Amino acid sequence: MFDLDQAIANWREQMLAAGIKTPVPLEELESHLREEIERKVKAGANQQEAFTSAVQKLGSAQVVRAEFEKADETHEARKWKLTNAFLMVFTIVLPLFMSVIVINRASVIDMTATQELSSLAAMAVFFSLAWAGRLSQGIFPVIANRRIRDAISALGSLLLAVWWIVFMRLIVPRHDFVMSQFLVAFVWAFFLPAGMWVGWLWGMEAAARRKFVPVGV
Amino acid sequence: MYRAAMISKELVAASTEPLILSLLAGGESYGYALTQEVKRLSGDKIEWTDGMLYPVLHRMEHRGLIKSRWGESETGRKRKYYSLKKSGKKAMATHHEQWSLVHSVLAGLKKEQCV
Question: How high is the ipTM of this complex?
Fold first, then answer.
C-alpha cells in the first residue's frame, strides 16, 4: 500500500541530502507538492502516480538547489555591494573626522607640531592600510567558504577588542601621559591595528568574490 | 489541428518576473496558484518548471519587489502567500512598457512584410 506521507518524507530527505538546507524553501516546496498531488488525485489519478509525476514536475533536487543558489548569490552580491560602499565611506570619513578633531584640539591641549603630525600620520596610515587591503585583493587567499571567513572576521575583531581593552586598562594607567601624549598614543594604538584589520577583512572578502559572476534570471 | 509550439525556455525565463508581478497585482497569491494561473491564461503554452518558480520568488523578495507571509489554506495546510510591494508595482510598469515596445516593433515589422 502506498503511503503518501512516507513518500513525501523520503522526498524531503532527498532534497536535504542535495543541499536544500534551509527549511523555508523546503516547506514551501512540500506545500506545492501536496497541492499538485491533491489536484491530480481529484482528477482521478491514484496517489502513487500523482506523487511520482508531481515530484518529476518539481524538478530534481540538484536542479532546484542550483536555482536557489543563483537566487542567494544575487542576494549576496547586493549585500557585498552595500558593504563595499559602506567601507569606502567609513575608511574615508573616519580618519578625516579624527583629523579634524586633532587639528582643532591641538592648541587646546598643547600639542607640539611633531605630536600633531604624528596623530595625522596615524590617520593616513589607517586609511592607507585599509585601502591597500582592498586594492591588493589579488594577493589574498581565496577562501570560498563563508563560515571560515566569518570565523576569521570574528576572531580578528575579538583580538582587536582585547588589544584595545588591554591598551586602555593596562597600558595607559602605567604611564603618566599628559593629554597631548595620550592622544598620540591613543590614535596610534587604535588606528594602526584597526587599519590593518579593515585592510585584511576587505582584501579577504573582495578576493572571495573576485571570481563571482552574478547570474541573471 | 494546428497547435502553437510551447514558448521557448529563454522566453519563459525572461517573462517570469513580469508575469509574477502582474499576477500578484491582482492580489496576494501563492506559488502553486501562480503556476496554475499562468498555465490557464496561456492555454497551457507557458509551463513553468515548478521548482524554478520558488527561487525566482525568493530572489524577487530579496530585491524588495514582493513580500511574503505564511498563512493557511482552506484545508489548514501551511501556505506561503506573496504580495506586491511598492517597488514591485514600479518594476511591473517598467516591464509592461518594455514588453509593449518590443511587441509594437514586432507588430510594425510584420505589417510591413504583409504589405
Answer: 0.79
